[in-house]
Amino acid sequence: MTEFLKATFKVNYLGFALDVDLKLPASGITVVFGPSGSGKTTLLRCLAGLEKSGTMEIAGEIWQNENIYIPVNQRAIGMVFQDSRLFPHLNVRDNLLYGYKRKPVDSRRLHLEEVMHVLALKNLMVRGIEKLSGGEKQRVALGRALLTSPKLLLMDEPLAALDAQRKTEIIPFIRKIEKELSIPIIYVTHSMSEVLQLVDTMVILKEGKVVKWGPVGKVFADIQLRNAIGDQHSGAVLDTTVLEHDTEFGITRLDFMGQELSVPLQSIPQGKSLRVHIHSKDVSLATQPPDGLTSVLNILKTKVKKIGENVGYSVDIELDAGRPLLATITRKSLSNLNLQVGQPIYAFIKAIRMIHDSERI
Questions:
Q1: H helix count then E strand count, the chain
Q2: What is the largest CA-CA distance in the chain?
Q3: Which residues have C-beta within 8 Å of that of residue 167, sequence separation ≥ 6?
Q4: Which of 32, 211, 274, 355 is 20–30 Å from 171 (CA)?
């Protein structure tokens, strides 16, 4: 049975109004995405229990409603912030065990050896905090939060203060936490790169309200969210499975909903997952498959699901390929094709960006 995190909040905090009603999977990684001032951190405050108004329930357990309020210090929540907030006078081991020692023995679900393994901390245990890199500090902060045995992990832009190399180091560990320890994560960011690499479910906030939420692929391909996603990332996020490697031609073949995609040769075993991103401008459309040979390797059978606003030079077309796909074509092409909702259409994919399994564990 699918379990959910349900939350409703209507609060004013420092002059900012937040009004949300969410029902999210109590598993996987959910990103809260939006511009500065949209309410991301305020929502995390509410989920943490810092605002007493509203309701919250996770996996059937009520934490907050009109009759019940579980205080912040009694909620099984771990929190990780932009800065690691480690205790400088304690070494790595003592930082990790700070919350663990204060947890009742019978409620300790995670233990030091397990967290050390997941976050690769064994060689850091006796180091002082001042001798750690930024990425190492965040791994220790993650470990400290995990050793409180949380039922929910809240992360407020945890990579914002790190450079690109340190971010690359940390991202696999965040995914590993969710997969190996089965702890749901609510992750706040304004980085689309982090969204693509990490996220299962996406919540878009604007001016304190939820604009859209759902599986990341569905949100990315929604033509009404073009401005929220940004032109650079507009398109489809697809989770595929590696079918085989063709070393003669340097190609890896992927299964996507029973159809096949070809990408440059990848060092990923057969049967493993590979997330890809297809920009809407890299998709062209045709009413018929090619009559003869074509240089385009990737052609998907789809149906027209939605046609965007027909103004200006181009128009967005939302397609159904078993999962949402997005194409941006000219208005002239739309007229020539005479597209209608529900019409079968072939999507010619000119470029695919790989978001490697090594980045997603």
A1: 10, 20
A2: 72
A3: 135, 159, 194
A4: 211
**DSSP per-residue string spanning 114-134:** HHHHHHT-GGGTT-BGGGS-H
pLDDT band at 2 (very low <50, low <70, confident <90, very high): low
Phi/psi-derived region of residue 102, left when phi > 0, alpha when psi is between -120 and 50, beta in every other case: alpha
Number of other CB atoms surrounding residue 309 within 10 Å: 10
Where do runs of H (alpha helix) occur along 50-90? none
CA 277 to chain centre: 13
State the alpha helices, DSSP H only, in 68-163.
Answer: 92-101, 112-119, 134-146
What separation in angstroms does the CA of 167 have from each of 9, 69, 171, 197, 232? 32, 36, 6, 11, 20
Question: Which phi and psi angles does 89 have, rounded to 5°?
Answer: -85, -5
Q: How do the domains of the chain map onto residue ranges?
A: 4-220, 235-360
Token reading at 51: 């605002």
Q: Which homologous superfamily is 4-220 in?
A: P-loop containing nucleotide triphosphate hydrolases (3.40.50.300)
pLDDT tens digits, one per residue of 311-349:
789 999 999 999 999 999 999 999 999 999 999 999 999
**What is the pTM (predicted TM-score) of this model?**
0.85
**Does residue 60 come out as left (phi exceeding 0), alpha (psi in the -120 to 50 range) or beta?**
left
The CATH class of 235-360 is mainly beta
What pLDDT does 360 receive? Answer: 38
How is residue 9 written in tokens? 């909040």
- Averaged pLDDT for residues 144-157: 93
Beta strand 185-189 with 235-246 is unpaired
Question: Is the Cβ–Cβ distance between 305 and 269 less than 8 Å?
Answer: no
**274, amino acid identity:** L
CA 234 – CA 226 distance, rounded (Å): 6
Confidence of residue 170 (pLDDT cuts 50, 70, 90): confident
pLDDT computed for residue 361 by the predictor: 33
Report how far Cα 304 is from the mean position of its chain's Cα atoms: 26
Place of tokens 């930024």: 134
Q: Which of 322, 346, 345, 168 is nearest to 240 (CA)?
A: 322
